[in-house]
From TrEMBL:
Species this chain originates from: Bradyrhizobium lablabi
Membrane topology: Multi-pass membrane protein
GO molecular function, one term: amino acid transmembrane transporter activity
InterPro entries: LeuE-type
Entry keyword annotation includes Transmembrane helix: yes
Lineage: Bacteria, Pseudomonadati, Pseudomonadota, Alphaproteobacteria, Hyphomicrobiales
UniProt-recorded name of the protein: Threonine transporter
Pfam families in the record: LysE (PF01810)
UniProt KW keywords: Cell membrane, Membrane, Transmembrane, Transmembrane helix
Keyword Membrane: yes
GO CC terms: plasma membrane
Ranges that cross the membrane: 6-28, 40-65, 71-92, 131-157, 163-182
Source organism superkingdom: Bacteria
Principal place of residence: membrane
């Protein structure tokens, strides 16, 4: 019963952080309006897998390693930030490229695995997320816990992340948002690309801060 209460507290704390807009939200929303619902949902599952990976890393003590070796943390932030900048550049560059959506909302509904990895790589590109997970875990986790509890916690992290981004995917892949996207594609892509690039640049510059 105590472990269940702890699990509920962690899920509640992480849920607040998950719904905060960031690179992951931008990516899922953009895939949803520009592609198919299937690919957007696959991207959402990739976000969930990335969150579960960070959760596992936090349980294994990644926070201690990053705090003990600041240079490693800085390198990870630079690499992750550059990757986000690269994604932002690709989105911005595609602003003028024509796009035809098929009935049902999507390009062709193919390549869900590629969309999954896009979501996963976007999620894990920000090492700050691992610190957030570690901080939440440190605040709520008991000094000792069972393997079953750890497995349940990682499963809960996956569900929370995937469920939120699946909701984003469903909302943005509906007919209304997709029609609006087609009407203002160049502006939407430029804005999304600029936001993604800005978030990446912010992550890179933060690496220089103590």
């Amino acid at each position: 019963m105590q472990e269940l209460a702890v699990l509920a507290s962690i899920v509640a704390a992480l849920s607040v952080g998950v719904i905060s807009p960031g690179p992951s939200f931008v990516m899922v929303a953009r895939v949803a309006v520009a592609s198919s619902r299937i690919r957007a949902l696959a991207t959402a599952l990739g976000m969930g897998a990335g969150g579960a990976l960070f959760g596992a890393a936090a349980l294994l003590g990644l926070q201690s390693v990053l705090l003990a070796v600041p240079a490693l943390y800085a390198v990870l932030k630079v690499l992750g930030g550059l990757y986000l900048c690269y994604l932002g550049f690709l989105i911005f560059r595609s602003a003028r490229q024509p796009l035809a959506l098929v009935a049902g909302g999507g390009e062709d509904g193919s390549r869900p695995l590629r969309a999954f990895w896009l979501g996963f790589s976007t999620q894990v590109s920000n090492p700050k997320t691992s610190i957030v997970y570690a901080s939440v875990f440190a605040a709520f986790l008991p000094s000792s816990f069972s393997v079953a509890f750890a497995a349940a916690l990682l499963a809960a992290v996956f569900v929370v992340e995937s469920a939120w981004y699946a909701l984003v995917a469903i909302l943005f892949s509906s007919a209304g948002p997709q029609r609006a996207y087609l009407s203002y594609k160049s502006w939407v892509d430029r804005a999304a690309g600029a936001v993604m690039f800005g978030l990446g640049l912010k992550l890179v510059t933060s690496a220089a801060k103590p």
